[in-house]
Amino acid sequence: HPPNFQVEESSSLRRANCRAKGAGPGFKVAILGAAGGIGQPLSMLMKMNPLVSVLHLYDVVNTPGVTADIGHMDTGAVVRGFLGQQQLEEALTGMDLVIIPAGVPRKPGMTRDDLFKINAGIVRTLCEGIVKSCPRAIVNLISNPVNSTVPIAAEVFKKAGTYDPRHLLGVTMLDVVRANTFVAEVLGIDPRQVDVPVVGGHAGVTILPLLSQVKPPSTFTPEETEYLTTRIQNGGTEVVEAKAGAGSATLSMAYAAVKFADACLRGLSGDDGVIECAFVSSQVTELPFFATKVRLGRNGAEEVFPLGPLNEYERAGLEKAKKELAGSIQKGVSFIRN
Ligand code: NAD
Ligand code: LMR
C-alpha cells in the first residue's frame, strides 16, 4: 500500500478497538466491488448509516484511495480497505452483512445475461471467500445477471455445507424504487407515498410490477398499465442507453442498495415488520428462486410472502416471467454443478 494507506489503516484499527470497548450497537458490513461505479457511492452511504460500526471495503483495484477518502467522513463507522484476492479472507472475517456489487456492467445492446461469462466466476470466487470467513453472514447480491448469480451463490454455499436460504438475497430493490417513481409520476403524487410490489426476477420480462396491488390503492387504464410495466421492465436499459457506453445505473442503484441493506440491518437488530421485495429461495411458484415481498428479521428472510391476487394482465406476465426465469436459474445452477 502507499504509506498514507498504512496510516489510515492503523488509526482506523485503534478506533475500532476503542469502539469495541465502548460496545455501541452496530453491525460489521463488507462491500465487495467497493471501488466501482456502484461500490463508491454505496460505500459512502453505508459510512453514513448509524447501524454500521465497521465497514470493510474490498476490491481488486483502487481501494486504498476510496478507503482514505471515505475514512475522513466524521460518522461513526470505522472504515478499512482491502485490496486484491489475497486480502479477501481478511476483508470478510467477522462480517454480519456482505454486499456484492462486483462485476462488469452492461453496454448498449447487451442483455444482463451477456454479463454471465465474466460475472459468474467473480461471484463464485467471492462466495467461496464468504464460506471461509463469514458463513453466517447475510449476503445482498447485486452483480448481474441476478437471476443466475443468486443460484450460483446458493450452489457454492450448498457445496460447502453452509447454505442457509434465509441469508441469501438477490437485490431487486432498484426495480421497486423505479416503479415507485414512475407510478408516482402517473398518479401525480409524492413517490415516498407509493409502494409498488415488484416480483419475479431482475431482467426484462422477469421484472413484474403488480400495479393492482399499488399502495395507495389506485386504478390504471390499460394504456397506463402497459406504459408503466414496460418502463419499469426497461428501466435498466433506459440508463444504459443514456450513459451510452459509460456503464449502467450506479447512483440510483447505490441508493436502492442502501435502502435494502438498511432494511436487512433493521431486521437483524430485531425491528418488527421490516418488509421488502427480494429475489430469494422460494416456494411461492414452482421455481426454486423468485422475488416477492419478504419479512426481514434476525435470521434474514424469515418469511416469504405469497403473490396475492393478480389480475389477468399480471397472470399473463407471470407466465412469461417464469419461463425466462427457469432458464436463467438453471444456467446458474449448472455453472457450479457441471
Ligand atoms: P463497475 O465496473 O463500475 O464496478 C465493478 C467493480 O467490481 C470494479 O471496481 C471492479 O474492480 C470490481 N471487481 C471486478 N472483479 C472483482 C473481483 N473479483 N472481486 C472484487 N471486485 C471486483 O460496475 P458497476 O456499475 O458498479 O456494476 C457492478 C455490477 O452491478 C454489474 O454486474 C451490474 O450489472 C450490476 N448492477 C446490478 C443492479 C441490480 O439492480 N441488481 C443494478 C445496477 C448494476
Ligand atoms: C439495472 O437494472 O439498472 C441493472 O440491472 C443494470 C443493468 O444492466 O440494467
From TrEMBL:
<keyword id="KW-0816">Tricarboxylic acid cycle</keyword>
<dbReference type="InterPro" id="IPR001236">
    <property type="entry name" value="Lactate/malate_DH_N"/>
</dbReference>
<feature type="binding site">
    <location>
        <position position="144"/>
    </location>
    <ligand>
        <name>substrate</name>
    </ligand>
</feature>
<dbReference type="Pfam" id="PF00056">
    <property type="entry name" value="Ldh_1_N"/>
</dbReference>
<dbReference type="InterPro" id="IPR036291">
    <property type="entry name" value="NAD(P)-bd_dom_sf"/>
</dbReference>
<keyword id="KW-0576">Peroxisome</keyword>
<dbReference type="InterPro" id="IPR015955">
    <property type="entry name" value="Lactate_DH/Glyco_Ohase_4_C"/>
</dbReference>
<keyword id="KW-0560">Oxidoreductase</keyword>
<feature type="active site" description="Proton acceptor">
    <location>
        <position position="202"/>
    </location>
</feature>
<feature type="binding site">
    <location>
        <position position="106"/>
    </location>
    <ligand>
        <name>substrate</name>
    </ligand>
</feature>
<feature type="binding site">
    <location>
        <position position="112"/>
    </location>
    <ligand>
        <name>substrate</name>
    </ligand>
</feature>
<comment type="similarity">
    <text>Belongs to the LDH/MDH superfamily. MDH type 1 family.</text>
</comment>
<feature type="binding site">
    <location>
        <begin position="142"/>
        <end position="144"/>
    </location>
    <ligand>
        <name>NAD(+)</name>
    </ligand>
</feature>
<keyword id="KW-0520">NAD</keyword>
<feature type="binding site">
    <location>
        <position position="119"/>
    </location>
    <ligand>
        <name>NAD(+)</name>
    </ligand>
</feature>
<dbReference type="GO" id="GO:0006099">
    <property type="term" value="P:tricarboxylic acid cycle"/>
</dbReference>
<feature type="binding site">
    <location>
        <begin position="33"/>
        <end position="39"/>
    </location>
    <ligand>
        <name>NAD(+)</name>
    </ligand>
</feature>
<dbReference type="GO" id="GO:0005777">
    <property type="term" value="C:peroxisome"/>
</dbReference>
<dbReference type="GO" id="GO:0006108">
    <property type="term" value="P:malate metabolic process"/>
</dbReference>
<feature type="binding site">
    <location>
        <position position="59"/>
    </location>
    <ligand>
        <name>NAD(+)</name>
    </ligand>
</feature>
<dbReference type="GO" id="GO:0009507">
    <property type="term" value="C:chloroplast"/>
</dbReference>
<dbReference type="InterPro" id="IPR010097">
    <property type="entry name" value="Malate_DH_type1"/>
</dbReference>
<dbReference type="Pfam" id="PF02866">
    <property type="entry name" value="Ldh_1_C"/>
</dbReference>
<feature type="domain" description="Lactate/malate dehydrogenase N-terminal">
    <location>
        <begin position="28"/>
        <end position="170"/>
    </location>
</feature>
<dbReference type="GO" id="GO:0006097">
    <property type="term" value="P:glyoxylate cycle"/>
</dbReference>
<feature type="domain" description="Lactate/malate dehydrogenase C-terminal">
    <location>
        <begin position="172"/>
        <end position="335"/>
    </location>
</feature>
<keyword id="KW-0329">Glyoxylate bypass</keyword>
<feature type="binding site">
    <location>
        <position position="178"/>
    </location>
    <ligand>
        <name>substrate</name>
    </ligand>
</feature>
<dbReference type="InterPro" id="IPR001557">
    <property type="entry name" value="L-lactate/malate_DH"/>
</dbReference>
<feature type="binding site">
    <location>
        <position position="253"/>
    </location>
    <ligand>
        <name>NAD(+)</name>
    </ligand>
</feature>
<dbReference type="InterPro" id="IPR022383">
    <property type="entry name" value="Lactate/malate_DH_C"/>
</dbReference>
<protein>
    <recommendedName>
        <fullName>Malate dehydrogenase</fullName>
        <ecNumber>1.1.1.37</ecNumber>
    </recommendedName>
</protein>
<dbReference type="InterPro" id="IPR001252">
    <property type="entry name" value="Malate_DH_AS"/>
</dbReference>
<dbReference type="GO" id="GO:0030060">
    <property type="term" value="F:L-malate dehydrogenase (NAD+) activity"/>
</dbReference>
<comment type="subunit">
    <text>Homodimer.</text>
</comment>
